[in-house]
Amino acid sequence: MDKVVATALEAVADVPDGASLAVGGFGLSGVPNVLIQALYERGVAGVSVVSNNCGAMESGLAVLLAAGRIARVTGSYIGANKEFARQYLAGELEVELIPQGTLAERLRAGGAGIPAFYTPAGVGTQVADGGLPWRYDGEGGVALASPPKEVREFDGTEFVLERGIRTDFALVRAAKGDRHGNLVFNKSSRNFNPLAAMAGRVTIAEVEELVEPGEIDPDAVHLPGIFVQRVLALTPEQAADKKIEQRTVSD
């Protein structure tokens, strides 16, 4: 039951080239930076990433992106990541953009063993009808577009069929975790991290504070250890290394 690994490199030692990864975090909040850096140091390439966004300010997934290690991204927000936009428009990166709530539910559904579900989000748009550019040809044309999805009516309202997401591995960051893999997330880092963890067949969690089993009140557990296979305890310096994406100062 002790799932703790000694180092980040050990935690990701079996992640191969071309693996699919569900990665937690939102902006710079709750991003498993240490595990991502370990993947970079190992030279892992050609990965398919499922994450809300693809890193920012040269941190998080932006480390792998800038090195050309990411082949495909399924996400909901590009934001101000100029390198992401450049690779996408140049045809170097395949990108599936989907509504943010749909992304969250696709991850949760995959982790819960639900193969697909119907949602009203995207009906009447290219999300359902197909034609969204997944890959450009580098000259302004579309090399690969999204296919149409099944649309069905329930009680007079149309819904589009979306499939649950399962990935080879998941990388997440938690504020607290025990040796059994039970995790607690802090505030907004709780949004995508539990869902990404559920979606991974092998889930690796870096935790800012490692505690012994029983020290976390069962009612306080956000993600039970059944979803987590490996736990990496961060050093105090790693746990404190948190960037601010946009600082606002007022009088």
UniProtKB/TrEMBL annotation:
Looking up SMART domains in the UniProt record yields: CoA_trans (SM00882)
Source domain of life is Bacteria
**UniProt KW Transferase keyword:** yes
Q: Which UniProt keywords apply?
A: Transferase
State the PROSITE patterns in the record. Answer: COA_TRANSF_1 (PS01273)
Task: Provide the transmembrane region boundaries.
Answer: none
Q: Name one GO molecular function term.
A: transferase activity
A Pfam family the protein falls into = CoA_trans
Report the family membership.
Belongs to the 3-oxoacid CoA-transferase subunit A family.
State what protein this is by name: CoA transferase subunit A
